[in-house]
Recover the amino acids of this structure.
C-alpha cells in the first residue's frame, strides 16, 4: 500500500484518541498536544477527502518543541513525530497497525445534524448528484497528477500554485463541454465543499481563454457554496478575507498567514446564496477584509454584511490586474499581507502596498 493510500484510509482519529481525549467541535476534533499533553485545544484534527489531517498551533504557555508551522499534516507525519521514525518506518508501521480499542470510522462521513454552524439554510444537491460528481472529481484528480495532466499542471504552476496546494484543494483536470461552442475543452476542476465535506459544486476553469468563449462553467446541478469555508477553524482564524476567484483564495492559503481565512465568492460575484452564507460569519471574526476587482462590488458587500469591513480594489499595473494570484506570481503576496494585517492604523490599498514594496 503506498503512502497516499495510507494517509487516505488510516483511522488516525482512533490512534490519537488512544493518546489524548478529543472533543468534537463541528466537523473538527480538538484537544491538547498529543505529543506532550500540554495546552488546551492546541491540537486540531479534521476529515478531508484525502484522509485525516492534523494541525498543532503554537502555545503561549508551556511551549513544546512540536510542529507549529500553521500547516495540516498527514497520518504518516503524525507517526514520524510521535515515534521518532523515518518516513519509510512510519509507512511500514501504519501498514501493519490494526486498531481495536475504537470503532472504525470512515473518513468521508454523512453530514452530522450539527456538523457546522454555518451550513444552516443551504439546500444541498441530491445524494445521487454528489455520488456521481465525486466520482468525476476523483477521476479528474488522478488525471491532473498523472503524466497526461501536464497541461493542467503547467496552467497552475504558471500561476504560482504549487502541487501541494492543488492537491490539498483537490483540483483536477477534465474536458467538460463548453456551453457556448459545444466543444470539449481542457479545464481545471475546482470542487466546492461545505463544512461537513459534502460536495456542492464542480466548477471548471478552461485552460485557454479563447475569444468569444466562456472562461468558466459548472457541472449541471452544481450549487456553489463559499469556496474555502470548509477550511474554517474557529479557534485558529480571527481575520476573514473575502475575494472573488478561487485561485485568489488558494493563493492566500498557500502563503499561510497565521489567523487568516480566505473565502471566494466566485468570479461572478456574490449572489443571494453566498451572501446568506456570509452573514453568520460577520460576528465570528475580529476583522473582515473585502478584496474585489471593482470598488462598487466591494462597497455593496460591505454595506450588506459589515459596515466596518476594510474594502480593497485590485489595481491595474502595466495592463495587468494585480489580484491575490497575481501578487503570488510576482512574490509580493506575503509582503502585502504583512503590510495589510500588521499595520491596521494605516489606510491601505494593494496599489499603495505595491509601491511600498
Amino acid at each position: 500500500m503506498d503512502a497516499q493510500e495510507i494517509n487516505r484510509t488510516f483511522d488516525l482519529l482512533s490512534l490519537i484518541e488512544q493518546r489524548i481525549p478529543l472533543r468534537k467541535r463541528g466537523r473538527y476534533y480538538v484537544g491538547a498536544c498529543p505529543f506532550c499533553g500540554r495546552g488546551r485545544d492546541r491540537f486540531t484534527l479534521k476529515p478531508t477527502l484525502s484522509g485525516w489531517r492534523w494541525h498543532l498551533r503554537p502555545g503561549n504557555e508551556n511551549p513544546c518543541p512540536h510542529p507549529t508551522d500553521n500547516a495540516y499534516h498527514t497520518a504518516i507525519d503524525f507517526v514520524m513525530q510521535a515515534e521518532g521514525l523515518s518516513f519509510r518506518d512510519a509507512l511500514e508501521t501504519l501498514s501493519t497497525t490494526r486498531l481495536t480499542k475504537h470503532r472504525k470510522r470512515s473518513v468521508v462521513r454523512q453530514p452530522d445534524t450539527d456538523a457546522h454552524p454555518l451550513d444552516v439554510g443551504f439546500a444541498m444537491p441530491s445524494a445521487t448528484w454528489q455520488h456521481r460528481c465525486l466520482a468525476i472529481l476523483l477521476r479528474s484528480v488522478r488525471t491532473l497528477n498523472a503524466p497526461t495532466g501536464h497541461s493542467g499542471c503547467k496552467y497552475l504552476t504558471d500561476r504560482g500554485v504549487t502541487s501541494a496546494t492543488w492537491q490539498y484543494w483537490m483540483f483536477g483536470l477534465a474536458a467538460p463541454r463548453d456551453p457556448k461552442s459545444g466543444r470539449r475543452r481542457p479545464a481545471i476542476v475546482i470542487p466546492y465543499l461545505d463544512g461537513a465535506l459534502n460536495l456542492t459544486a464542480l466548477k471548471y476553469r478552461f485552460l485557454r481563454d479563447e475569444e468569444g468563449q466562456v472562461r468558466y462553467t459548472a457541472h449541471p446541478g452544481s450549487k456553489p457554496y463559499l469556496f474555502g469555508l470548509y477550511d474554517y477553524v474557529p479557534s485558529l482564524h480571527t481575520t476573514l478575507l473575502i475575494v472573488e476567484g478561487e485561485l485568489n483564495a488558494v493563493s492566500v492559503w498557500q502563503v499561510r498567514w497565521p489567523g487568516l481565512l480566505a473565502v471566494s465568492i466566485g468570479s461572478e460575484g456574490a449572489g443571494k446564496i453566498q451572501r446568506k452564507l456570509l452573514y453568520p460569519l460577520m460576528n465570528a471574526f475580529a476583522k473582515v477584509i473585502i478584496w474585489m476587482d471593482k470598488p462598487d462590488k466591494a462597497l455593496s458587500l460591505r454595506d450588506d454584511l459589515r459596515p466596518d469591513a476594510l474594502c480593497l480594489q485590485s489595481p491595474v499595473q502595466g495592463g495587468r490586474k494585480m489580484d491575490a494570484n497575481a501578487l503570488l506570481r510576482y512574490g509580493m503576496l506575503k509582503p502585502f499581507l504583512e503590510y495589510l494585517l500588521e499595520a491596521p492604523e494605516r489606510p491601505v490599498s494593494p496599489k499603495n502596498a505595491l509601491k511600498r514594496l
Notes: The CA atoms of residues 229 and 235 lie 14 Å apart. The mean pLDDT is 81. The domain at 127-218 is CATH 3.90.980.10 (DNA primase DNAg catalytic core, N-terminal domain).
